[in-house]
Amino acid sequence: MSGLFAMTGRVDDTKIKDILESMHHRGPDEGDAVLLDKFHLAHRRLSIVGVRQGKQPIANADNTKWIVADGEVYNYLDLKKQLSDTTEFLTESDSEIPLKLYEQEGPSAVKQLDGMFAFVIVDTENNTFMAARDTLGSKPLYYGKDDEGNMIFASELKTLDMVTKDIHEFPSGHYYTPEEGFVMYRQIQQPKSGEIFSENELPQMMEGIRQHLEGAVKKQLMAEVEVGVLLSGGLDSSLIALLARENRKRNEPLKSFCVGSSDSEDVKRARQVAEEIGSEHHEYIFDEQALIDHLPEVIYYLESYDSSLVRSAIPSYFVSRLAAEHGVKVILSGEGADELFSGYEYLKGITNTEKLNQELVRIINTMHNINLQRGDRMSMAHSVELRVPFLDMAFIEYALKIPAELKLNDDQIEKWILRKAYDGRLSDNIIWRDKAEFSEGSGALDILDKYAEGEFSDAELAKANEANKWVRSKQELLYYNIFKTYFPYRSVLATVGHWATV
């Protein structure tokens, strides 16, 4: 996990220091910049894999090709074995793998990577470069051009803003080269009708869910540092916590983390799950003032004003801070289960598998600047890497083949087959607990709604909505006003993702 900056051309020494400082939260362990003939690279690193050997920018043996990368390549050891015996590796970092693949096969080799990543490779020998982002957009990447036509890439808006006001989100599942432009190399798609499982295969499907999810958790436990779990007490986070505890190789107890108001349901349920799985559990209880006081900081790191996103980001911010305070550098989250198993209320009316998958694929492909942005930014605000096992590529492909009728049964219980697959592994009131959004379960929603209501009149909201249709409530107006203090230029508005509701 890291912060990256890359551009054709160069910036002066003072600005490159400021650029490195703007990314410090993404990589406090070490940072460096390299000025090449026609490129300028900078990087801040959070050391997780190849801790002692992995400082970036990373070069090849003759210093003609360089990479700055963010994220994790989970299959890097397999790819390392597949590369020819003549390949010379200069580090133990998984981030060196894309560079070696590029050397041998060119930009299209990005298709072989399994992970969450964003990277830029510059090729001084051929005076070209490539940039790429993972399929789901789990890791952020933005791009733009300065007044001289130099192309610039950065992990966050606040860094890119230091060089240009021409800012765009790099599309997920794409790579870019000057020769080819943007190329989509992978996208989540609906399975064909003949690939959908039969309802009669229920036992096999439940076993498939267990195998794929456990495999995803094992894969994402990959780290040379301690891995903890976010635990809200709901189904999704509880399953990830259970599987992490069962599959981790460390002797000391798994650390779990929960935040909420003093009477929130999340806190109560999380305590129960922690006791059942035997985790070392930590809590942070927030009050109304803490939520309000931290709003500017949350929005600065989140780089969004969408009301649903902000109010769920605040507890995410607190829980990530809590994990960092207890020495955890990587946290696993239950994010993604709702998108795979029809966990949202509005999906309950869709019983046709093809129509349901159409909507599930749509929302999965929009997570890059909504759920996944929240997870990345709030964890990285505290130099913690967040991973999401439910969104493992193999698990996504498998889950989309499960019939709609088994995701929502006749009793209108969402995620029914996921619950059934783990029935008996945890207490019934955990496995069969009704879904609550993070902001609702943590108690943040009511507090923020009440505060915003007292801050603005109906006339002020109407005026703001006329200027920007995405300012849809007083709560959103509160966030938007804070957002504009950090990002006042209109070009940045196109990078902001929005939930359908407020």
Q: Which secondary structure elements does this structure contain, and how are they paired or packed?
A:
Elements: E1 2-8, H1 13-22, E2 30-35, E3 39-45, E4 58-59, E5 65-73, H2 76-82, H3 96-105, E6 115-123, E7 128-133, E8 142-145, E9 151-154, H4 157-160, E10 168-169, E11 174-177, E12 181-184, H5 202-220, E13 227-230, H6 235-247, E14 255-260, H7 265-277, E15 280-285, H8 288-293, H9 295-302, H10 307-325, E16 330-332, H11 337-340, H12 353-364, H13 371-380, E17 385-387, H14 393-399, H15 404-407, H16 416-421, H17 428-431, H18 438-442, H19 444-453, H20 458-467, H21 474-486
Parallel strand pairs: 13-14, 13-16, 14-15, 16-17
Antiparallel strand pairs: 1-3, 1-9, 2-3, 4-5, 5-6, 6-7, 7-11, 8-9, 8-10, 11-12
Helix pairs in contact: 5-6, 5-14, 9-10, 9-21, 10-13, 19-21
Task: Provide the CATH topology of the largest domain.
Answer: Rossmann fold
**Secondary structure: helix percent:** 25-40%
Q: How many helices?
A: 21
Find the count of extended strands (DSSP E, 2+ residues): 17
Please list the strands of the largest sheet in the order they lie side by side.
Answer: 2-3-1-9-8-10
Strand content: 15-25%
Overall mean pLDDT: 92
Rg on CA atoms, Å: 22 Å
Biggest β-sheet: count, sense, barrel? 6 strands, antiparallel
Structural class: alpha+beta
